[in-house]
Amino acid sequence: MIGAEASSVGGSGMARGIAVALAVIVVALGLPPGYVGAAEPMTERWSTTFGGPKWDEAYSVQQTSDGGYIVTGYTDSYAEDFRAVWLVRTDARGEEMWERTFGETGWAEGRAVRQTSDGGYILTGFVRVDDQPDVWLVKTDADGNKEWARTFGGPEAEWGFSVEETSDDGYVVAGFTRSEGEGEEDAWLIKTDSRGRQVWGRTFGGPQADYARSVWQTSDGGYIIAGRTSSYGSGGADAWLIKTDADGNEQWSWPFGGPKDDFANAVQQTSDGGYVFAGGTRSAGDGNTDMWLVKTDGNGTLEWGEAFGGSDEEEGCSVQQTPDGGYVMAGYTTSYGAGEEDVWLVKADSRGREQWSRTFGGSRCDIGYAVQWTSDSGYVVAGVTESYGNGSVDMWLLKVGGVVTGGPSVYQWVAVGAMIGVVALGAALLLRRKPLSG
Description:
This protein has helices at 2-28, 410-433; strands at residues 39-50, 56-63, 69-75, 84-90, 96-102, 108-115, 121-129, 132-140, 146-152, 158-165, 171-177, 186-192, 198-204, 210-217, 223-229, 238-244, 250-256, 262-269, 275-281, 290-296, 302-308, 314-321, 327-333, 342-348, 354-360, 366-373, 379-385, 394-403.
């Protein structure tokens, strides 16, 4: 038994020695304590505000190919006249690399931006022309310098809300028009070539107000559009999905909603060939307006819909399918959090069941307009904040969760393996020298 006790003590000492050796390896390689290469809890990693003394807002964000971010919205603080499109490029930590303003007519806003296949950027929004807004499409190089710009519209108001680069290197824009179509406002889909020259335009709608807020090119080369219709459906306004072929011809459309107002703000084709949209509903849920997540099959047939919220106001402004088959939404809540309105980030599983949600913000109004899953398994959110920053309202870029950055390189892991091998060999030799009995 004395030998057994000695063996136990020796084993404990050996374990401590191995632990110390491994700790030395970790420190030597510069790894953060507790590094495990896994996703962190969904808490704020960093946040950055952009703006001056006036109003400055962000509506769209995308992670760039180098791990940084491109953001668009508008600025009143740095516009030559009243309001200008604002394009901001940051590094992976949200630190500004450069910024550009566009719009010399006194009123222009950016509503969506995407990095293009040539490393530049395409953005859409609207610009004032002859006292009315027109859809504006702007292409820049990788440094944000304007390459060309195009306007689309007639004598009345037109806005662009969403843009995507298409498989033929052109672009597709979704928004609304008051100059074209049959109704008060019609959803408008515009297809251009790689230089922004219009190839075709299509309107969708009835006699009332109808508009498109989001477009996505589908796997068959066509397009899925999400928005809101007052011409069709069962309520004052309903969420609206429209599927077109590659030439913009309608294949089907469906309204979604109940007797009250419901709407869709963002849409994406899902990995199973169906569609998911996020928006708001007054017909379902617990509050005045609830965040709404709806999934359909490839023909637009409803599979499920889930409402999220409390007794006050919530809205989903953006949605993305995540690699685990679930969904992440960004928007705002007045039922939860610390302020008048707080950024609300909600993660759901593949059936729309909430897995977690987080609020971000201070005592005033803070809204998340766009969210994207990032390459480190976290999320980036763009929106506006009244609680933080320099002005009345500032652009807000918020990073949530993700794998610890600054981890080991391949060479560091090779060195780790070699050092662990040395430690294991020493432990084996030590065991051979230790008697297991008296």
